Amino acid sequence: MRVTEKIIEGLLWLSALITILVTIGIIWVLLSESIGFFKEVSIVEFLTEKEWTPLFANKKFGIMPLVAGTLLTTLIAIAVALPIGLTIAIYLNEYAHARMKQIVKPMLEVLATIPTVVYGFFALTVVTPFLQQFIPGLAGFNALSAGIVMGIMIIPMISSLSEDAISSVPRSLREAAYGMGSTRLQTSFGVMVPAASSGIIVSVILAISRAVGETMIVAVAAGQQPRLTMNPLVPIETITTYIVQVSMGDVPQGSLEYKTIFAAGITLFVFTFALNNLSFWIKKKYQEKYD
Amino acid sequence: MTNSELNRLKDKAFQIFGIFCTFIGLVVLAIFLIDIVMEGAKRLDWDFLTSLPSRRASQAGIKTAWVGTLWILVLTTLIALPLGVAAGVYLEEYGKKGRWANFLEINIANLAGVPSIIYGLLGLEIFVRQMKLGSSLLAGALTLSLLILPIIIVTTREAIKAVPRSIRDGSYALGASKWQTVWNQVLPASFGSILTGIILALSRAVGETAPLIVIGALAYVPFTPSSPLDEFTVLPIQIFNWTSRPQEAFLTNAAAAIIVLLLLTFLLNGIAVYLRNRQQRKVKW
Fold first, then answer.
1. What is the model's pLDDT at position B238?
2. Which end of chain A is less congested by CB atoms within 10 angstroms, N or C?
């Protein structure tokens, strides 16, 4: 009996240990292949060169164009999702009836369950043609529609996390504001949002991290042309799209081109790892504690 | 206009803006779904579901894709379910609070935030190359299992946490060992919530495209897989492949395949929501 108990506990412990092994595995895989890459390409060139053409005859290995593409689509997505998501959070908390909140929240969650390749299809076949009616210079592949659609996808992420943050602000603060004669709007922006600011910031950071790592929307709709630009109307390429592009093609294992996807991968990992841990740190340090 | 009237006006204006924002996402979603159904419905028939892929859009079907998706779904469940639940049970029932537990917790939160494409790179190196599984169903399912492991662990822990102390104490008082308590009391009591979490995690796995592309799942597979070591394609990859072709007819195919994929995702989510509601009604501690 004792022995069986111990064996079972050991097996459970091993399962928990796997999560650590996964992290070690990710870091090891990314590092070992990237080191091979950086033996052939200097890290200075990687960070400062302004072109990314590993698949062409004239190879240049500057990650900047891919980083710029990633930042551009992320920026557009957040510009769409933050105002809408935050407004929804405030509206559901301060204006809407409890019943409406109950109905609307799960409906918004549906947005987050749709596979991203489907959003990509939407960006390419619906949003881009629609925008082309107003923006004549808009290319068939562009950062703008990919970014907008990505923004729609992450609305529920911001609205739901911000809503949790706002609703955990104690009633007494809200009632004090109403007692002073504030309108709902003044209460929201004067009291509730500042009091919930750490939670709201965390939701935005997590949304940025999600947008940076998003792959299929940009792979379908943003193009495959690494370009150091902040122009949202032309085709660009993100870090994630590049990894997909190489994976789809016939690149021999062990070649320099093959190693580039791990160098791109480690860049992506560093960004999201930093963002995620920043959000944990803020959550821990600045979480308002009320009694 | 007095100051207070102005404030009230601003308040009203924001209310309208709030309603607008709340529904814009849903309206866009509705437009999109209608567009897809209008486009895809004309292509969606029995032949489309039972035909192999083809270079001609009008003859191409999604048989290999949906069979591949079902394979992946089953294999991923078989791998991720025992692992995730076991890890969740360990962390909640056995693990001692302290630095180690803290570290595990931060680590799992971090894993949940790693982009799915990075899991693809992990799977490519470990499963496809080191373990020599090739671009097989098994390699794909293992990769997706690692991807959804954090979600399953977190939901398992929350489900177990909701089981009250008194149930455990009662079991111990009758002389049950720790594992007997977990297996006979805690897990059955929290099974509904755990199942909900697992189904939600699986619906995520079904829609994943990027990691499977990275491990080398093919866009064109002329046969349906018959063992876990066969090469495969899945619905999202088939959709991606058709979407990236210039011909209009392939876009129609993509829309039809999207209808099938969305039905599957919504079905899984629907089951999860149904189970959650039933669970909430049934359990009153």
1. 92
2. C
